[in-house]
């Protein structure tokens, strides 16, 4: 089972103008609630009697919170956890990863120009590579980011995949798309939303979304509730089913659309967005 977990955490140390997520400043009470929810979820994963992979997709930045770092480390050492990964802006120190099992831990790191000095981000990315941590690096395909993206591709270790997300609501000319494809050969998958209505998708079968209360849905983008993780009621709702939405335009959604064949493209690196380009 693959689980996309998103608790109530929404605070972020960045304020990117292109970010589609509504940010808030979490109160002490909200942070405590997020910590309690995460610890409850981690306990469920630890007690599971079947293989589990987890991708944390917080609205805010998780790695600046000690409970996310601790949870990633602890879950990485469980033999039935195949992969534990998190989306992050990589603003926090990277030394904590030394306590994790590098065979299971992975990071999905996004560089946000204007929010962090280039050299600081690059230094952390290189440090992760030296520590043997699996990770991908990405950037949003805004025109003003192209120079930084090219620079990153030149400066990152060759084996690190640099992905480009199409900017929200932006249409790319063929010439613009060619520039981004030179940075990320898989940019074509992000360039246009994918028609998904009626198409087979793994979500709701062996991939599910879980929120801080344990509510299970097929994915982050379909509101229909399958049940609850903690009382086991979600299991009766699992099974193959077509997508009910017209379009899917987010990687964590469309990567699971079976007609796209992206499980072959990202074999072994679905959660951390690392393709198998061998």
From TrEMBL:
It comes from the Bacteria. InterPro entries: Aldolase_TIM, Radical_SAM_STM4011-like, rSAM_sf. Coiled coil: none annotated. This is Radical SAM protein. It comes from Actinomadura logoneensis.
């Amino acid at each position: 089972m693959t689980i996309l977990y998103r608790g109530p955490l929404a605070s972020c140390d960045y304020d990117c103008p292109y970010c589609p997520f509504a940010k808030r400043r979490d109160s002490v009470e909200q942070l405590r609630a997020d910590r309690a929810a995460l610890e409850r979820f981690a306990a469920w994963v630890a007690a599971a009697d079947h293989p589990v992979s987890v991708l944390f997709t917080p609205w805010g930045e998780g790695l600046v919170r000690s409970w996310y770092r601790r949870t990633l480390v602890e879950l990485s050492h469980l033999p039935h956890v195949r992969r534990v990964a998190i989306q992050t802006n990589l603003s926090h120190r990277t030394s904590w990863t030394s306590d994790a099992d590098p065979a299971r831990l992975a990071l999905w790191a996004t560089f946000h120009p204007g929010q962090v000095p280039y050299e600081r981000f690059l230094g952390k990315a290189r440090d992760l590579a030296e520590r043997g941590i699996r990770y991908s690096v990405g950037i949003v395909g805004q025109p003003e980011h192209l120079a930084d993206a090219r620079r990153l591709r030149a400066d990152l270790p060759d084996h690190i995949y640099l992905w480009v997300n199409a900017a929200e609501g932006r249409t790319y000319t063929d010439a613009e798309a060619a520039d981004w494809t030179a940075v990320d050969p898989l940019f074509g998958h992000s360039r246009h939303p994918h028609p998904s209505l009626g198409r087979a998708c793994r979500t709701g079968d062996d991939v599910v979304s879980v929120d801080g209360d344990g509510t299970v849905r097929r994915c982050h983008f379909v509101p229909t509730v399958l049940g609850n993780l903690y009382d086991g009621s979600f299991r009766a709702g699992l099974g193959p089913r077509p997508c009910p939405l017209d379009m899917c335009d987010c990687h964590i959604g469309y990567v699971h659309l079976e007609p796209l064949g992206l499980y072959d493209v990202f074999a072994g690196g679905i959660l951390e967005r690392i393709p198998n380009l061998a």
